[in-house]
Design goal:
By secondary structure, the chain is mostly helical. The chain has helices spanning 39-58, 63-67, 78-96, 111-114, 120-142, 158-184, and strands spanning 150-151, 156-157. It is 52% helix and 2% strand.
Length: 189
């Protein structure tokens, strides 16, 4: 017996490994040669990979799909994740500085998710905000090549900040996996 459901059928673009997002030869996260040398390069490589994974999970969706809150009653959506990570990147810069904190991008708590509405202008702004905030945080951290250096009012080690950034993106990539599958059935790592 076949049950009727409004859930999308599971699918992938991969033909080699059905549990992958794309085939290994088509995966922009795959690089030729040896892994990076050194702790900083390794941390940056992992961060880049998770950032790319998040973008891949959002690719090919329209504003309505990106804003869809796929797991009620949660307010989380793929668009909300983009906005949240832009907000988090800005907040990490506040950890680095001794100066006055930068204001929140989207206002009050949870506004990053609550304001993730199905409008193309909101989508475009979210991608621009994320790109800008990532670049600004990367530039601020580039001034501190010693991973053991303690920065900001809290005296957080640069290494801890880098690991926390990787953890944040990795956790939200897991959310993005589930959200994307609920939106259009696409699965894969």
């Amino acid at each position: 017996m076949t049950l009727m459901t409004d859930q999308p059928a599971r699918w992938t673009q991969a033909t080699v490994y059905p549990d992958m997002w794309v085939d290994p030869d088509d995966d922009p996260r795959n690089t030729e040669g040896a892994s990076p040398d050194g702790e900083l390069a390794t941390l940056q490589d992992f961060l880049t990979g998770y950032r790319m994974t998040l973008r891949m999970k959002c690719d090919g969706l329209n504003a309505e799909q990106l804003a869809r809150r796929s797991v009620p009653p949660s307010t989380m959506s793929l668009l909300g994740l983009l906005r949240h990570l832009a907000e988090v990147e800005r907040d990490w810069r506040n950890w680095i500085t001794d100066g006055d904190p930068l204001p929140k991008l989207y206002g009050k708590r949870d506004a990053d998710f609550d304001g993730a509405v199905a409008e193309q202008a909101v989508v475009d702004a979210a991608y621009a905000d994320l790109e800008r905030e990532q670049a600004a945080t990367d530039a601020a951290l580039a001034e501190h090549a010693d991973l053991g250096e303690r920065v900001g009012r809290e005296g957080i080690a640069v290494r801890e900040l880098m690991v926390h950034r990787i953890e944040e993106y990795a956790r939200h990539c897991g959310h993005a996996d589930l959200l994307r599958e609920c939106v259009d059935g696409r699965v894969g790592q």
